Amino acid sequence: xxxxxxxxxxxxxxxxxxxxxxxxxxxxxxxxxxxxxxxxxxxxxxxxxxxxxxxxxxxxxxxxxxxxxxxxxxxxxxxxxxxxxxxxxxxxxxxxxxxxxxxxxxxxxxxxxxxxxxxxxxxxxxxxxxxxxxxxxxxxxxxxxxxxxxxxxxxxxxxxxxxxxxxxxxxxxxxxxxxxxxxxxxxxxxxxxxxxxxxxxxxxxxxxxxxxxxxxxxxxxxxxxxxxxxxxxxxxxxxxxxxxxxxxxxxxxxxxxxxxxxxxxxxxxxxxxxxxxxxxxxxxxxxxxxxxxxxxxxxxxx
Length: 302
Known about the structure:
Elements: H1 12-15, E1 23-30, H2 55-68, E2 74-77, H3 79-84, H4 86-94, E3 98-101, H5 114-132, E4 138-139, H6 152-159, E5 164-165, E6 186-190, E7 193-197, E8 202-205, E9 208-211, H7 215-220, H8 223-236, E10 242-245, H9 262-269, H10 275-285, E11 287-289, H11 291-301
């Protein structure tokens, strides 16, 4: 376990050596291993306090890795975790990272009514803003669950004061996805104003959107393939991409959950032991910053 401050201050010289490529967004979903959607049918939310919490240690590990590579990121923090780990939220803020909401209860949006969703997202934002003393205007849905069944959530986000969203994955998937959605950073008009939508990265392969650059896809694919695809987005398409990861993905020693679903076990545990090494390489190969910084640079270059 790390005992020192999670963000050492002697790396300013290294910041001058960053390459002048496109600026991409690095994002983190701050949730614990037992809170993922894959285990939702196995672990009840009322039982969450019974599980060993590893989120502070794993998030500090990620903060050190980002600092070593001079990268700031956007951390989407689950409200339930923020209420119990306020010092961790302040650590993330003190390291210069952007903080957004990941909802409060990690419930799939299309499993909620609009009223339930509004209460959840409002509760999470209030918790975070009380800790931070500043406005929170970025949001990511649990498991990218803004789909064709829950597009109404975008209007609620805008009404609640959010200005940036990263919840629409333009792929086919059994739990999430909107394959016809734009694949690049874009604006979405709502009745309460517009939102920036920054989707996770995909590349077109044989006419199909193939997900790359985050989560289980990052752990599953060979690193060379991931780098090739992300460079293709930057170089051929001349577009920034958004990378995403979870702190528990750097923790191969986490407790194993006895779920009945072989697919859920595979998705959650595949190649956990290689995540940190692969992340180090990715952080060397591309320019990264918080989501708002990447949006501003992309907007200035248009």
